[in-house]
Amino acid sequence: MNQKSESKKVAVIGAGPSGTCVAKLLRDQGLQVSVFERSKFPRFSIGESLLPQCCSDLKEAGLLDQLDLDEFQFKNGASFLRNSERIDFDFSEKYSSGMDHAYQVKRAKFDKALADLVEESGVEIRYEQQINDVKIENSIVELTCVSLPDGKSYSEKFDYLVDASGFARVLPRLFSLEHPSDQEPRFSVFTHLIDNNKTKMDRNKIQVVINEKRKDIWYWLIPFQDGSISVGVVGPLKDYDENYSEKENFYRFLEDSQDVKTAIQFKDWENTGFKKILAYSSNVKKLYGENYVLLGNAGEFIDPVFSSGVTIACRSASIAAPLIARQLRGKKVDWEKEFSVELRRGIDVFKEFVSHWYTGVLADIFYANSSNPDIKKMICSILAGYAWDIDNPLTKNTRRRLRALADWVKIDKQEPLSESHT
Question: What is the mean pLDDT of the chain?
Fold first, then answer.
């Protein structure tokens, strides 16, 4: 650490994975870091099935290996179920190099463990602090905050600001950065179950189940180390009925999936209740500005289907941290090229996978009877989060390559693909 670095102060909004990851990386660069978190930890959060790419970024930040990983469910891949037909993707068979496993975590426990480790490294975390205003003048960031326990307002100045506030999206709201998402509005309803271990399930994989009547509705089953399971349903927002409760909506969609009903029939509800997120996809006009940057969901959130949210959050932290440190040392940074373009390169790969998922085309590719093992390895790498691997052909011209694969499947099956494949 040098004296110049030590005198620079960085504020981070949010103590989720992107916030703690970037805070730890910046502290390791010798910067003073203060994290402002509105909640009191531990607290519930969605985004429970991690990917190897995410774990790799946490490992590089010096966080993963310090966790008691035995407390979290080991994850070695993903299973997809369509009309009771199952296909497995094992991360050890991926195309890309890097970690071949991850973990499935209750975020209340996981996020608290990360935050505690970051505090031990010298980062200040202030819980129950709400950011009400942000002003940036002459490269100085001034935050106006409210301490929620006592209601007192105060201001503080910093040299740089990182928005890792997730769905709260603090800076996009304050700076009018919101931009319509190009994803169709969708809903998600979810809860936790107690698994009585009366049904067989590979607990080392997330299970994604496609609705038996509609390809644009799907379900997740995420096993946890303590024997419980996260279960949720996702579908078009227009199909969510506000006249019903979250639980009633959940059961409405459950009726169309015998696979999910079979999987959860011997399980009891945990005392967590049912939760919903409506129109969850989001985007922004830009990911950075004068002495600030947006990470993870504060910038763009696509969809939960491939568990990309926390991965994009941690990847954005890993890309941004060295750039922030460099700028605060007086060096030039091309934020458009080095951050925005680089981050969106992987995001765009995930977006193509998501788009082709909801048309049914990607599932057709997954289930192709004569699936090429090399293609499956490339797909497996994306499902493992390695959307930034330039050596994987599927990360370049992703739309064109997926459409070519879809045409191959169509020829192989000698029957028309889904109508929306155009």
Answer: 93
